[in-house]
Amino acid sequence: MQVVLLALNASFVHTSLSARCLDAVCREAGIKLEVVESNINEGAEVISHRVAELRPKLLLCSVYIWNRRLMEDICTRIRLMDPGVIIVWGGSEVSGGWEEILLRTDVDYVACGEGEGLILRLIGALEQGEKPQGAGITWRGGPEPTAESMPVQALDDLPFPYVSETWLQNKIYYFETSRGCPYNCAYCLSSREAGVRYMSVETAKTRLSQMAGKVPLIKFVDRTFNAEPKRARELWGFLLGAKEETRFHFEICAHLLTEDDFRLLADPRAQRFQFEVGLQSASPMSLRAVSRHMDATQTLEKVKRLVQLSTVEVQLDLIAGLPEESLATFLTAVNAALLALPHRLHLGFLKLLPGTLLRQRAKELSLVYLPFAPYEVLRTPHMSPHDFFYLKRLSRVLERYYNLRQAENALRYVLGQGVLTGAEMLEQLDAADSKPVQECVYLALQTHVPLPQVLRELCRFDYLLHEPHKRVPEALLVEQQPEDQATRDIVYGDPERLVAALPHRRGEKPGSVLRQLRWGKFSREALAELRLPDDCEVLFDHSLPRAARVCVLS
């Protein structure tokens, strides 16, 4: 039987961990599984033809919130092209709403729960022309796949999913060391699972050793990576010694961080770590309403400490539309989050996922949401559609001006003055035009800070840091800066001084150095904001990563 597994990622750079896990299980059992991996930016017609050319007798579909509508289109086409193909849906979309899915005429079976414990039984039965028996698999008129009886396996016993990987350097790879979550947030699918199952630390280290250095980024899909702080710390310590080419992304609870964690994460090698922290809301009423029992103030204090380490990259997440959350209380959370100065602030919107408690209580709580994926909330008793429109616009401004970090020093200065709240700052930037980001920041915010000349210099600093070649906009110049001549004088006229600042450029031809170098001189006030020595000159070496690009010329 020709078996095809279809996985549709959210974008080109993503990879499907579930497809690789299932392929590894089948490979270990001697079953050939053809994997078709694509993304939602490819059309249904193109993907359908790729699948149909393999002539599957059994099509397994990995279905998630981001790909469901495209998967529906593809399955409709496949069924029309070949009425005899057996189509099975699995994935998180299925486990929460299998009854509704089985109303579709182009889905024959659904597999609920962890696929590694189901796939061999499913394929074996269908190859024999029989209906699969046992927990987790059902069909129209079949038994209910109750969560309590769904099979699970120890994570150490599952085969390593990346054995035959080609290690494409432009992709993100995913890894898990645990399943489940110790929390029961009402909007999350993990709230339906009981407890947390962990992969042993030794197995995790062995498998991570096989990946580190071969891919640019490994994202851990553990819901709360530091649910057991000692275990997390042991793995972090191990990864600090990994090859520097690989970075690691973790979802953590900041309030669980200990003093031992902060000491470990102060290591300069922790610059390879990215932490995603779910603040979600700063309203105690909203957090209680979704059974998220954590102190927002404590979380923000820990985030501030993380940022002050100047090692780990920190992203904070907020969710608009939670019960009891008004526009005013949500903007309070935005303001508090920005004062913590995370490297990124993600403003998301509540989605009522099938199978979650919040979805079940939607009518009771008067939450109005899209009846199809992505199930986004459009109106609540406390937030109107216009409130959501406003926050969508604010989210776009946040992405361009804050999250891209192209005016990072300037915006940190504005937030530190206390004249504007974070939300007010974003509102001012909303009216900016298509000029360079740093110029827009200065023009929009110069009247809202006590020392506009310092803001202008910080915007110029940020411009030189990010732009390797173009001239600095005139609006950011105090007077005509002798940048070109000063840079040439240093490169050609004072090579020893240059090498003292940039030892890694020793021996290079002056012309090669000049093409990647920028020079700037700034006031004492601006240098103080940047924590740089008084009266120094600054070189920006664009041959280096952004974090290492600033060099002081003594």
Structure described in brief:
This protein has 21 helices and 19 strands.
What does this structure look like?
By secondary structure, the chain is of the alpha/beta class. The chain is built from 21 helices and 19 strands. Strands 2-1-3-4-5-6 form a six-stranded mixed beta sheet, with helices on both faces. It has a six-stranded parallel beta sheet with strand order 7-10-11-12-13-14. Strands 17-18-19 form a three-stranded antiparallel beta sheet, with helices on both faces. Strand 11 (247-252), helix 8 and strand 12 form a beta-alpha-beta unit. Helix 2 (44-52) packs across helix 3 and helix 14 (408-417) packs antiparallel against helix 17. The longest helix has 19 residues, at 385-403.
SSE inventory with pairings:
Layout: E1 3-9, H1 17-28, E2 34-39, H2 44-52, E3 58-62, H3 68-81, E4 86-90, H4 92-101, E5 109-111, H5 119-127, E6 137-139, E7 172-175, E8 178-180, E9 196-198, H6 201-211, E10 217-220, H7 229-240, E11 247-252, H8 259-265, E12 273-280, H9 284-289, H10 296-308, E13 313-320, H11 327-339, E14 344-349, H12 357-360, E15 368-369, E16 377-379, H13 385-403, H14 408-417, H15 422-430, H16 437-445, H17 452-466, H18 483-493, H19 495-501, H20 510-515, E17 517-521, H21 524-529, E18 537-541, E19 550-553
Parallel strand pairs: 1-2, 1-3, 3-4, 4-5, 7-10, 10-11, 11-12, 12-13, 13-14
Antiparallel strand pairs: 5-6, 8-9, 15-16, 17-18, 18-19
Helix pairs in contact: 2-3, 6-7, 7-8, 13-15, 14-17, 16-17
